[in-house]
Amino acid sequence: MSASIEPDLDKLGDGIRQLRGNPELPPEASIIVPVNAQADLAIVLRLVADLTCYFGPHSFEIILVVNNYPPNSPPAEIKTYGDAGLGVVSAPNLRRPGEAVGFTARMPGLRAASSENAIIFDADCRVPNATALLTWYVEQFNNGAKLAYTHVDHYDLLDEWSVHARVQLHHWSRWVKRAIFRIPTNRGSNYAVNRSLTLQLYDKGMLADEMNVGPNIKATGGRIAYSGSPELVVLTSGRKIGKGWATLTKYLMYRLKYNLRELPVRPNAAQHTKRR
């Protein structure tokens, strides 16, 4: 699936309402998407369009967490997206010391969610088979999962050997962590969590990045589910993956060090990230 022209919000309204189902009943899951107001306000509609292709038995609300904008100049989309049936939480600045801002931006969405079942995507994600994926997530929650995730691939990759090598090394390293070391490898662009447990861990200072989520939930004894089924794949943009072997080497060294800092389960997680 490649990037395309952003869908017309007016045409998405019926799909958003159909996805939500009866508004007098709580949704079976809440879909939470951070939206960087400087880059994501338009492209997030592609993801919304993918999600409204869902034709299964369950109901979902979509909550957009719009952030990163001047306090005295909120984007007009906050209102227009809300009028279209999307849940919208807005905050000019959600940065906190030591935390990955994309992760921090999920917390207001979790707090606003109407369901204990929270499904998390990034604004630039694409979901080729929303019916299969969202149904699978609800099934995992019904089976007692506290964390569930599926395979993530890319679109819009540069056709360069170094870029393809980086992607393959990324998939291989995640397999090693998951299959050999039994470390959950959920990533920000596609996973689902129990709302209350995740907020509890975050408020205790145990979480500062997506990488903390899996090990911490596992440490609580929470059930974790994973599927590599092709029909459940989610695509994330590869537009920021730089080319060049020197770039690849620098990236690999950075990721190795970051993994060693982030994977241990310990309090005050934000103090160990070395993020500004």
Keywords:
276 residues, alpha/beta, Spore Coat Polysaccharide Biosynthesis Protein SpsA, Chain A, 7-stranded mixed sheet, two-stranded parallel ribbon, 9 strands, globular
Q: What this model shows, in words?
A:
With 276 residues, this protein is an alpha/beta fold. It has one domain: Spore Coat Polysaccharide Biosynthesis Protein SpsA, Chain A (Alpha-Beta Complex). Helices cover 39% and strands 18% of the residues. It is built from ten helices and nine strands. The strands form two sheets. The protein has a seven-stranded mixed β-sheet, with helices on both faces. α2 links the parallel β1 and β2. α1 packs across α2. The two termini are 35 Å apart.
Quick take:
The chain is of the alpha/beta class and 276 residues long. The chain has helices at 9-20, 44-51, 77-83, 101-104, 107-112, 130-142, 161-180, 195-203, 210-219, 245-262; strands at 29-36, 60-67, 87-91, 117-121, 145-150, 152-155, 190-194, 223-227, 234-237.
Layout of strands and helices, then pairs:
Layout (H helix, E strand, L loop, with lengths): L8 H12 L8 E8 L7 H8 L8 E8 L9 H7 L3 E5 L9 H4 L2 H6 L4 E5 L8 H13 L2 E6 L1 E4 L5 H20 L9 E5 H9 L6 H10 L3 E5 L6 E4 L7 H18 L14
Parallel strand pairs: 1-2, 1-4, 2-3, 5-8, 6-9
Antiparallel strand pairs: 4-7, 5-7
Helix pairs in contact: 1-2
